[in-house]
Design a protein that fits this description.
Elements: H1 3-26, H2 28-35, H3 39-42, H4 44-63, H5 69-89, H6 93-121, H7 127-155, H8 158-179, H9 191-196, H10 201-221, H11 224-230, H12 236-264, H13 266-287, H14 291-306, H15 308-319, H16 324-352, H17 358-380, H18 387-395
Helix pairs in contact: 1-6, 1-7, 1-8, 4-6, 4-16, 5-6, 5-8, 6-7, 7-8, 7-12, 10-15, 10-16, 10-17, 12-13, 12-14, 12-15, 13-14, 13-15, 13-17, 15-16, 15-18
């Protein structure tokens, strides 16, 4: 097997582990009903996953930095398969919550390790493309994995999804054992060094943009399936189609966000994208009971939300181009924390207010993100592109 095929294989496995993260939002109502808990309580499965990923992954990666990479990939996938097994075989909501912690930790370790292995498999001039391929594999889970999971959960049982993912995880172990070469570990980057950048106000404010942007998004996205069923009046087929359209729009938005950043700059792209994101959520609040209006609004929401992804990465790299890897790592942790906070706050909103309130509460979070972005650009003076950041982004294939 050529190295290029090995990289694509790792991307497919990244899609698999990504599906295990994103799928809960697509089947939240079914999990809640089967587990005998409220929808808001079930939403905390996303909170727990994100918190475990955000705090656990950096610690585990530092602790296992010197471990041979192929071995680490295999161990991570073995734990990943066990996490899915817990969800399928052990009864009760408590065990399901425990499985989310196990899945979060194993997913984080696998994804980070796979990124480093892919970069080493690729020739120097194509390392950025290799990394981009793996990121695309993980992100595709949102586009394809979630709607397929919804269809499977509707036709059979939601536990079948985790059973299938767990079995495929075992197959992935065999593939890695026989195709991925041994790769030495690396010197660990101390957690203190990773956090040292947080002493700079411009970086803290820029990371807060991610927190409010993803937090606002997560408030609504976590409870999207129950919203479509109970507020918009969708049937099962309509929910599956809506989730698929949502995923496609996110891919288009991400691509256009990168193009717009190159053509019109990060400040304009980021602020306008977030304002459009907030408007889409407000319009959903106003027209959420109309199934006809919801479809285009869902796509507008997803499109505008994910147009900010590559732009925010560019912005963060421009602030510390000499530590781009650490910056993106911090951004990933902040993103997971935001998803946890959004899912948690969304649960409170659903329980104390109403399911239909999640969209305008989410819009408020995104508006705060837009205002924070304006403050960030004024503080850092990053309206002018920095050559080092541009070159780094090109290397990453973004």
């Amino acid at each position: 097997m050529s190295n290029a095929l090995k990289i694509y294989m790792l991307a497919v496995i990244s899609f698999l582990v990504g599906t295990s993260e994103f799928i809960i939002a697509g089947i939240l109502d079914k999990v809640a009903e089967d587990s005998g808990v409220s929808v808001s309580a079930a939403g905390q499965l996303i909170t727990v996953f994100s918190l475990a990923y955000a705090f656990g992954t950096p610690i585990l990666m530092a602790a296992t930095a010197r471990v041979e990479r192929r071995k680490l990939l295999i161990v991570a996938l073995a734990v990943f398969a066990a996490g899915n097994g817990i969800a399928v075989l052990l009864p009760g909501f408590g065990f399901l919550m425990a499985s989310r912690v196990v899945l979060a930790l194993s997913t984080g370790v696998f994804v980070v390790t796979a990124l480093t292995v892919a970069a080493k498999l690729a020739p120097p001039e194509k390392q950025g493309s290799a990394i981009a391929t793996l990121v695309m594999g993980f992100s595709t889970a949102l586009i394809i994995g979630v709607p397929i999971g919804r269809v499977v959960a509707s036709a059979f049982d939601w536990k079948m999804i985790f059973a299938g993912i767990g079995l495929l995880g075992l197959v992935a172990i065999l593939l890695i054992m026989f195709t991925i070469p041994r790769t030495d570990g690396e010197e660990p980057v101390p957690i203190g060094k990773q956090l040292a950048l947080l002493k700079q106000p411009k970086i803290v404010v820029a990371l807060l943009v991610t927190f409010f942007w993803i937090g606002g998004y997560s408030i609504a996205n976590t409870y999207l399936s129950p919203y479509l069923l109970n507020v918009s009046g969708f049937n099962e087929q309509g929910v599956s189609i809506g989730l698929f359209a949502f995923g496609i729009a996110s891919l288009i938005g991400s691509k256009l966000g990168g193009f717009s950043t190159d053509k019109w700059g990060a400040p304009r792209t980021l602020v306008i994208g977030m304002l459009l994101h907030a408007v889409a959520l407000v319009l959903l609040s106003l027209a959420g009971q109309s199934a006809v209006a919801v479809f285009p609004l869902l796509m507008l929401w997803s499109f505008s939300a994910w147009s900010s992804g590559p732009t925010q990465q560019y912005n963060l790299i421009s602030l510390a181009p000499e530590a781009s890897g650490i910056m993106l790592s911090l951004n990933t942790s902040m993103l997971q924390l935001a998803m946890a906070a959004g899912a948690g706050l969304g649960g409170v909103v659903v329980k104390q207010l109403s399911l239909s309130s999640i969209t305008w509460i989410g819009a408020a979070g995104v508006m705060i993100a837009a205002a924070t972005a304006v403050a960030s650009f004024r503080l850092s003076g990053s309206g002018v592109r920095k050559k080092a950041a541009e070159e780094k982004l090109l290397e990453m294939g973004a």
